[in-house]
Amino acid sequence: MFAPIVLFTYSRVDHTKRVVESLLTNNEAKDSELFIFSDGAKDESKECAVNENRRYIHTIAGFKSVTIIEREKNYGLANSLIAGITDVIGKYGKVIVVEDDLVVSPYFLKFMNDGLRKYENEERVGAISAFIYPVNKKLPTNFFLRYFNCWGWAIWKRSWDLLNTDTKYLLRKMRFLSKEFDVGGGAGAYGNLYCQKVGLVDSWWVRLYASLFLANKLTLYPGQSLTTNEGLDGSGTHCVETSDIISKVVPVQSPIKILDIDIEENRDAFKIYSCYFNSLNKAGRIRQMFYSAWSFVRRLLYIDCR
Question: β-pairing, 33-38 with 65-70?
Answer without folding.
Answer: parallel
